[in-house]
Amino acid sequence: MTDNKPVERSRTVAVVGTGTMGQGIAQVALVAGHPVRLHDTVPGRARQAAAAITGRLDRLVEKGRLAPDARDAATARLYPADTLDDLADAALVIEAVVEQLPVKQELFAALEKIVADDCLLATNTSSLSVTAIAGALRLPGRFVGMHFFNPAPLLPLVEIVSGFATDATAATRAYATAKEWGKTPVRCTDTPGFIVNRIARPFYAEALRLHEERVADPATIDAVLRECGGFRMGPFELTDLIGQDVNEAVTRSVWESFYQDPKFTPSLAQRRLVESGRLGRKTGQGWYAHADGAERPQPRTEAPAPAPASVTVHGHLGHAEPLVRLIQEAGIKVRRRKHGRHLTLPGGGQLGLPDGETVFEYEGDEIIYFDVAHDYTTATRIALSTAPTTSSETLREAVGLFQALGKDVTVIGDVPGMIVARTVAMLIDLAVDAVDRGVASAEDIDTAMRLGVNYPAGPSEWAARLGYAYVSELLGALHERYPTGRYAPCLGLRRMEHEERAAMKDQDIR
What we know:
Layout: E1 12-16, H1 20-31, E2 36-39, H2 45-62, H3 68-76, E3 78-81, E4 90-95, H4 101-112, E5 120-123, H5 130-134, E6 143-148, E7 157-162, H6 168-180, E8 184-189, H7 196-199, H8 201-212, H9 218-227, H10 235-242, H11 244-257, H12 268-275, E9 310-315, H13 322-329, E10 333-337, E11 341-344, E12 350-352, E13 367-370, E14 381-385, H14 392-404, E15 408-412, H15 420-436, H16 442-453, H17 459-466, H18 468-481, H19 491-509
Parallel strand pairs: 1-2, 1-4, 2-3, 4-5, 5-6, 7-8, 9-10, 12-13, 14-15
Antiparallel strand pairs: 6-7, 9-11, 11-12, 13-14
C-alpha cells in the first residue's frame, strides 16, 4: 500500500461470493460510485446476483430513496465476472464465501496471482482468523478484515480487522474506504469474535444461565432486559431470530478460540435446543413458537398493589437516584437520611441495588433487591429479587411503590446480581479487558455495540453511569458465589475501580 486514502471511486471493486452478504456489499460499493465485478464459483450465480441487486435498486427508486438516473448509472457499472481472471483490474477485492478456512485461503492464493500488488484484499469473515487466512500469502501486509453486518446496505457498522501481518496503511485505507461509502468503521485487532461477537457473549450467556438456574422463564428475562435494561430485543427472542445453531456455533467458536476460558462457556440448555432441531424462526420453533397464530408467552407481572404512603431514602442511590424524584412526583412522602445506599419501606423492609449477594444471606432482615435500569425515568418494568422468607407485606409494599411510578413489576428468584446488573457488569468486564489487551479503543467498542447490536449504551457508557467500583464489587461478589473464574473481575477493571476510588477520595479531601 502506498497511501492511506480510500479506494478511488473510478477504481473497480470486486466481490467474490454472491450470497446475501456478497450482494449487500456489492450494492454498497455500487451506490458509492464504483464499478463492481461479481464473481461466484457456481456458474450463472453472479448473473443472478446482478439481477437481484438491480431489482433492489429498482425498489429503492420506487420508494424515493434513489434517483432514477443514479440507478441507471449504478446498473451500468455492475458486471458479472465468469472467472477470477476478470478481476485483474480490481483495486479492492472483498470475499464473502463460505466460512471455511481452506476455501478462503485457496481463493486468496489464486487472487494474489491475478491482481496487482497494490490491490487491497479483504475478507468479510465473522468467525475465522484474519491472520490465518492471510498466512500463506506472498504479500500478507495488504490483507485486512472488512466485516460488514447484515443487511450490509442498511447497517452502518464495519469492523476493520488487522491481522498479525496487516500493514497499518492497508487497515487505514480499508477504514477510509468504508467511511467514504457512508459506513461507520471501527478498528480492531484479529481476536476471536472481533469486537461485537466477543463483547456480546454475556448478553446471551447470562440469560441462559439464569434460565438454567430456574430464576425466570425466557419471556420474563427478555422483558426485563428490554423494558428495564433498554435493550432492543431480549436474548431469547434475538437468538430465535439469528438462529439457535448460528448463535451457539459463534459462542462455541469464541470459547474454543480462547482455550475454553470460563467467561465464554457455552450453554447446555442452548445445546439441547439445537440438538432438538428447534433453531428459532427458520424452523418455526425455538425458545418461542413462531408458527402463524402461535400465542406469545407473557412475562411474569405482579398484580396491582397499594402504594406505600412514604419511604425513607438512605444516602445517595447512585445510578438509581432519579427514583427519588419519581417517588416524590407520585405523591409519596420521602424522608432522607445521610448514611447508606438504600430505601426503607414503612414496614421496615429495605430496597437496594443488587450487590452480588443473595437475599437469604441477610437472615432475619427484610431485604429486596431491585434491578439496574438503563434509565429509571423511561423504564417501563422493574425486576425485584426476593427470598422465600420475604414477607408478603414487605413484597406488596415494594411492588406498590414501583407500580405507583408507572412501572410493571416482575418478581424473580433469589439470585445474585439479578438480570440486568450481572449482564451489564459482564459486558463492561469483557470490554475493559479488550481495551487493556489492545483489541480496540473504548470508543470503538461503544460504537460497535450500539450500531452492531443496537445496545442502548456501550460498555464504557454503562460504566460511567454505574461506576467501575460498583461493577467490580458486584462481579467480585458473584465470583465468591460462583468460584469458577467466570465472574472474576479482570485486572483492568480492578485498576479502574482503584482509580475511581482514589479520585473520589481526592475530591473529598478538597
